[in-house]
Amino acid sequence: MTGALLTIRDVGWTSPRSGSGVEPFTLNNIYMRIESGEFVGLIGPNGGGKTSLLRCAMRYSKPESGLVGLAGNDLWAQPARWSAQRIAVVGQEFPSAFGLSVREVVTMGRIPYQRGFQSESVKDRLRVDDALATMDIVHLQHHEFGLLSGGEKQRTLLARAVAQDPQVLILDEPTNHLDPKHQVELLAHVKKLGVAVIASLHDLNLAAAFCDRLYVIKDGRVAAQGRPWDVLTPDTLFETYGVEAFVDAHPQTGTPRITWKIA
């Protein structure tokens, strides 16, 4: 095992047949590594395998080959509780909270540390308080989750993940339903957490601004990888998306800025 916190090595996986005549999707010998505190982005076309790969890493879909390693341990050889204490997930859809308050949703992040019908401990309450403060939603803690705006819901789910005390945070298109203001705010919050992050992102300018490294996932394979300036080149973007792009430096951050060519 390498010194990386999260290692995805030679992972292969094939989706179950649906019976609809659609060919099953396959991940082919994926190799990735994420260091502690590193923000790694997955980019690529729809249907390329980003979500399938994340599901293998979050212990949802078991790989047919290869290894998902966390801190030197085979993730799939560990109990589910063990992985839940180390990996937190924020998906692209909002769950039904059935009338739960924001605080109650965030408190769910402490479930991996509780056993049976054990009530929340003082430590649990303190971690929830800290998570609410970290995501700047203390003022919303008694509001009903289902009545929140999209940005508030996503911050609540991220607070739940923070309360989980993860070593790795997995985000599957976390900005999918957010307006630009809340997209930037959410990723800025994530960046400040200081934990290892692996996130699938469609907005390449956001990926360039916030990610330390990028992996291009296309046709179930890693098509390119590296720092944003190494990956977000006109040639790679055309090969990945089939659209010509202009790439220059963002005037504020100096990170790559992508402008798509209009046919």
Account of the protein in words:
Residues 6-244 form the ABC transporter domain. It is built from 9 helices and 12 strands. By secondary structure, it is of the alpha/beta class. Helix 4 packs across helix 5 (150-163) and helix 5 packs parallel to helix 6 (180-193). It is globular.
Short descriptors:
263 residues, alpha/beta, 6-stranded mixed β-sheet, 4-stranded antiparallel β-sheet, 9 helices, 12 strands, 30% helix
Shape: globular
Secondary-structure element string: EEEHEEHEHHHEHEHEEHHEE
Mean pLDDT reading: 92
Structural class: alpha/beta
Rg calc: 19 Å
Please give the largest β-sheet. Answer: 6 strands, mixed
Please give a quick description of this structure.
The chain has 263 residues and is of the alpha/beta class. It has nine helices and twelve strands. A six-stranded mixed β-sheet has the order 6-7-8-3-9-10, with helices on both faces. The protein has a four-stranded antiparallel β-sheet with strand order 2-1-4-5, covered by helices on one side.
Secondary-structure blueprint of this entry?
Elements: E1 6-14, E2 26-34, E3 39-43, H1 50-57, E4 65-70, E5 73-74, H2 80-84, E6 87-90, H3 102-107, H4 122-134, H5 150-163, E7 168-172, H6 180-193, E8 196-200, H7 204-210, E9 213-218, E10 221-226, H8 228-231, H9 234-241, E11 245-249, E12 256-260
Parallel strand pairs: 3-8, 3-9, 6-7, 7-8
Antiparallel strand pairs: 1-2, 1-4, 4-5, 9-10, 11-12
GO molecular function: ATP binding
Protein name: ABC transporter ATP-binding protein
Domain ABC transporter: 6-244
